[in-house]
Amino acid sequence: MRYAVLVTGPAGAGKSTFCNGMITHLSTSRRTGHLVNLDPAANTDAFEYQPSIDIRGLISLDDVMSELGYGPNGGLVYCFEYLMENMDWLDEELGGYEDDYLIIDCPGQIELYTHHPFLPTLVRHLQRLGIRTCAVYLIESQFMEDKYKFFSGVLSAMSAMVNLEVPWLNIMSKMDLVTTNIEDKGSGRNGLRTKKDIARYLEADPMLLVSAPGSREEKTERNSRFHALNQAIVQLIEENPLVKFLALDLTSPDSIETVLSHIDYVMQYGEDEEPKEPGDLDEGDFADME
Question: N or C end of the chain: which has fewer CB within 10 A?
């Protein structure tokens, strides 16, 4: 059985770093993971591991922009439409991997997850090949500058979940930039972030959008032209409680293992594997038992 994890989320959320951390952890756990790069605009320097499958072997954004005169967004769409027309290339690349984890690094343009048909088409194609597929959506902890930015991320995650229709995990990344010490003023890229501050965002509580009754903020919101929109967002999230975040600190093996165990669970990793006979065990297996 083969398994694929689509790593999605906005630009700068730490997708490539997440992929590198996952492959390192899989290797440490004596499991096989392969990096698949589906970003035709990827910077090679971002990869700690050489991709086993790389869309740039088929088409790259730089070539499309220089040869066809497209801009970055139009060129990216062209690249994926080209891949959709050449899925046999992907089939051939995937053919050599059995019983492996495929960590698929996706681009940071969230329109591809929420509007474009490419990723839903890719998911269905992987499923036809017998590859169990799930997706993770990353939002960085440093994005928690205010509640409005956070809920724009929540709505993007919700839209992507509905569009792709696969087992799904939302992850709050870069928790290593969050401090437990309120006196540590240097922590956080955008200023001080404490774990207590971030914890309330792990559950997408729509009431965070609503100010306390009678407060100055509440009176200001009622006079705002966006008041009705905020109320509609609150109602939408209350009626569709789909988004919840796992906190991820890539400097902590326990944190990575927690995320990996959730991914294993939603994909039912190992459910179809036959138990090993005594003669099938190697020295490493006996070492694991000690």
Answer: C
Task: Describe the strand order of the beta sheet including 53-54 as a list of residue ranges.
Answer: 53-54, 33-37, 101-105, 2-8, 131-140, 168-173, 245-247
Do residues 246 and 171 touch, judged by C-beta distance below 8 A?
yes
Q: What is the DSSP letter of 194?
A: B
Q: What is the mean pLDDT of the chain?
A: 79
Strands 53-54 and 33-37: parallel
CB 17 within 8 A of CB 11: no
- Contact at 8 Å (CB) between 266 and 169? yes
Do residues 266 and 134 make contact, with C-beta atoms less than 8 angstroms apart?
yes
Per DSSP bridges, beta strands 168-173 and 101-105 are: unpaired
Q: How far is CA 10 from CA 52, 101, 111, 200, in A?
A: 23, 23, 9, 21
Task: Choose among 251, 250, 264: nearest CA to 171.
Answer: 250
